[in-house]
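User: I'm designing a mutation panel for Pvc16 N-terminal domain-containing protein and want to avoid disrupting the core. Could you give me a predicted structure to guide residue selection? Please restate the sequence first so the numbering is unambiguous.

Assistant: Good idea. Sequence first, for numbering, then the predicted structure tokens:
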Amino acid sequence: MIHEVDEALRGLLGESGLEASGVETVFDAPTRDWAARRTAPTVCVFLYDIREDTTRRGSGAGEVYDADGFVVARRSPPRWFELTYLVTAWASRPQDEHRLLSKVLATLVSVDTLPERHLTGSLAELGLTVSLDAGGAGLDAPAASDVWSALGGELKASLGVRVRAPLAGVSRAAAPPVTEGLLVRSVHGEENEDPQPGRRLRYDGVSEPAPDEGFAGPRERRPAPARRRRGGRQP
């Protein structure tokens, strides 16, 4: 999921025209050594904090359908995580850095969610809203000064970006369909007596099967639920 959020951010920033103007978008840690090796204008999107949003943790399991509408697996609810990024601009002059950072800020604050067109993999499959908060107050994450201190670099202008994204739940294959009825056998009699042949029960409403078809009849097709529209309020 994390790499899918990275790619969505890259795609969103790419629409601002940065790449067309020769500005590279990277996800490296902006350490002192990294800054010394940088040779071109760069926007650095550094992920430095990952925390679960426990208020959105769900319970139960959802059904996964195949192309024919049959239940093939059951999946636990997604877990929501907050990914916090430190976004910085790097150029030869502070004025150029501020221009780049202003362009990034204008792009990120123009949306409240990562656009669907940029979602891939599990994020696209789940069809849930991935929220985006750029520069908002109350980011529950280490302060920027603490991050710079840990990186061993000098403090510079940066933008805090938080993304709330779902991590897909664990899928477990559904049990195969029943092909035979319940076998009932008498347990009365002498200890050494041969067991009596059992009687196999039939399910109500199931016609008599052919010898090689068992007692369950055809598997019932269950229609898949309607897909929730993107952008709606999630529990």
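For picking mutation sites, this is relevant: The beta strands are 24-26, 42-52, 62-65, 71-75, 79-90, 131-134, 159-167, 171-173, 183-184, 199-200. Residues 179-222 form one domain.
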